[in-house]
Write a structure and sequence with these properties.
With 389 residues, the chain is an alpha/beta fold. The protein contains 16 helices and 13 strands. The strands form three sheets. It has a six-stranded mixed β-sheet with strand order 8-9-10-11-13-12. The chain has a five-stranded parallel β-sheet with strand order 2-3-4-1-5, sandwiched between helices. It has a two-stranded antiparallel ribbon with strand order 6-7. Helix 9 crosses helix 10 and helix 10 crosses helix 11.
Length: 389
């Protein structure tokens, strides 16, 4: 069992959201067994269980009254959004001391059904694929750049089995998350969209171009991206601008939530990431941005992540972290084994023009140095420092 960084507060009920395969159920088993709490477990992925509760929602109230559990765990709650109304009433009841842990792999159905999200009476938490710190002795940068970081990979030793798992993950997502939940009417263009969006990972979204490739209209492509975000398959990286309105008018990027799944969808699992190539640089940048995105959620840092592009599109900063009225933090990501002083000086110029608070040049160079306003760090050291930013 991998020791995960995040631990919930057991004083309150909570949601646990995340893509399938990120380890939500395993985490709950670990947390509640180690804390020796009495639980009622409702697994809505079990078709019979889902059908039983769908036919008789009040069954939940009767079971709580009969068993008086400390915790009720409802796994994949988006399968039966109406059950949240009963959960809400149970939490509001002064007589009831039972708390709830609610997992979900899709916010889409909850949003669409105007589900009761308990009006803030349950904390919201997210589970991600493994971060560098959680791999511990099992970590291999090359392996993560080739296969991603879903927990299941730790159980598979054979490279072919790992690739087969990632390919089947994509099919399972289509069949169980999209087809069974009826999130799109026609699967064929959505299936094509998945491959194209994987190929466009980390690039500016050109919805009209993608629409032509897939055979749908631009609005449908935008809806497809929203489905990916709602099912935790990825996230937007908007353009940074000090004006929120102007930022919203600029073109965002989109990053898939896991390198291995993204590679499976674009059919590049057999394509090695060789150091010194442009492809290696792209995958390394994807890895670092994913790590920062996940740590931002795990440690609840509340940073807004974005990228910065100069007005004339002459240059770009890979990542900008902004929060409230604090000055932004600029991050340039390079896969090089040596610090590129020219790039460092360029970052320093952006630092001045944006009036940044801090600027970091992250690479595979193991030395640490300060060049004016820019701090150059090895990538793993920066990740260790992240929670103190």
């Amino acid at each position: 069992m991998v020791k995960r960084v995040y631990r919930p507060h057991f004083e309150e009920s909570f949601f646990l959201f995340g893509a399938r395969g990120t380890g939500k159920t395993s985490l709950l088993l670990d947390w509640f067994e180690s804390n020796q709490r009495t639980i009622l477990w409702i697994d809505l992925l079990n078709l019979q269980t889902e059908d039983d509760y769908r036919a008789d929602l009040n069954r939940l109230n009767r079971e709580i009254k009969e068993k008086n559990p400390e915790w009720v765990i409802i796994d994949e709650v988006q399968k039966l959004p109406k059950i949240l109304d009963l959960v809400h009433r149970q939490i509001e009841s002064r007589k009831n001391k039972t708390k709830f842990a609610l997992t979900g792999s899709s916010a889409r159905k909850l949003k669409r059904g105007s589900a009761n999200l308990l009006a803030g009476r349950a904390f919201v938490n997210h589970v991600f694929p493994l971060v560098h710190e959680e791999w511990r002795a099992h970590f291999s940068l090359n392996e993560v750049l080739c296969r991603g970081s879903l927990p299941k990979l730790l159980q598979l030793k054979d490279p072919e089995r790992k690739k087969e798992f990632l390919r089947s993950y994509a099919l399972t997502y289509l069949n169980e998350e999209i087809r069974m939940e009826q999130l799109v009417r026609n699967l064929d263009p959505f299936r094509s969209f998945l491959e194209v969006s994987a190929q466009m990972n980390g690039k500016l979204i050109n919805a009209s171009k993608i629409a032509k490739q897939v055979g749908v209209d631009t609005v449908t492509v935008q809806n497809y991206y929203q489905i990916l975000e709602d099912t935790w398959m990825g996230f937007y990286l908007p353009a940074y601008h000090q004006s929120v309105k102007k930022s919203q008018r600029l073109t965002p990027k989109f990053y898939w939530f896991d390198i291995g799944v993204q590679k499976a969808l674009e059919r590049s699992l057999d394509m090695p990431a060789q150091e010194g190539t442009g492809y290696y640089g792209e995958v390394f940048e994807h890895f670092i941005i994913l790590e920062i995105f996940r740590l931002n959620g795990i440690y609840k840092k509340d940073f807004k992540l974005s990228y910065y592009q100069t007005h004339a599109s002459e240059g770009e900063v890979d990542l900008v972290l902004s929060r409230g009225r604090r000055k932004p933090i600029l991050i340039e990501i390079k896969s090089n084994k040596r610090v590129d002083i020219t790039e460092v000086h360029k970052l320093a110029r952006y630092h001045e023009s944006i009036d940044a608070g801090e600027s970091f040049y992250i690479s595979q160079d193991t030395t640490r140095q300060k060049e004016g306003s820019v701090t150059c760090l090895p990538w793993d050291e920066f990740l260790k420092r992240f929670k103190d930013l």
